[in-house]
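Please fill in the sequence for the structure shown.

STRUCTURE ENCODING:
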């Protein structure tokens, strides 16, 4: 059986959706999804960035994220019968998120084996055959075949196979090629 490692944020879970909502609510802003660039918060809002990063590091912040794509649940369930599925999340970026991420996975993906949840920093240590991720840096460091989950901030990269949603992921991996 081949193995597939799957990233969490912006592949399974809509972290940025909640982060934007929380940012607007906490700081009384009204910025749009298109304008919201988490990597620029320190530069654009230096006076708010410390409080913002403390907020996303609160123990429950990641517990009630919405699914990035509702099809992720049935598709991963089916893939799980034909592949070894691992969840690989760079949770070291937000150390306060561990428990909430774990519980979130158990809630939405109860059919996955929790011993296959990998909370890591650099995904080069993940020895799966495939990695589905929105982060180009992680795909470049990964040693198997990278699949890029398309998001507006990774549109310019062309070196990886790109998927736009979980239906496309299903078509890519099923039926299993012998
Ligand atoms: Mg991600």
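FILLED IN BY: designer on duty
SEQUENCE:
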């Amino acid at each position: 059986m081949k193995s597939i490692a799957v990233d969490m944020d912006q592949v399974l879970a809509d972290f940025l959706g909640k982060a934007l909502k929380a940012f607007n609510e906490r700081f009384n802003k009204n910025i749009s999804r298109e304008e919201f660039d988490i990597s620029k918060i320190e530069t654009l809002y230096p006076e708010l960035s410390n409080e913002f990063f403390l907020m996303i590091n609160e123990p429950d912040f990641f517990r009630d994220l919405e699914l990035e794509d509702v099809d992720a649940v049935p598709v991963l369930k089916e893939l799980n019968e034909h592949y070894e599925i691992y969840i690989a999340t760079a949770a070291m970026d937000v150390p306060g998120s561990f428990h909430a991420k774990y519980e979130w996975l158990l809630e939405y993906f109860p059919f996955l084996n929790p011993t296959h949840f990998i909370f890591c920093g650099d995904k080069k240590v993940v020895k799966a055959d495939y990695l589905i991720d929105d982060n180009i840096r992680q795909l470049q460091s990964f040693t198997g075949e990278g699949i890029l989950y398309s998001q507006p901030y990774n549109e310019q990269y062309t070196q990886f196979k790109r998927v736009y949603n979980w239906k496309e992921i299903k078509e890519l991996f099923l039926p299993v090629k012998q």
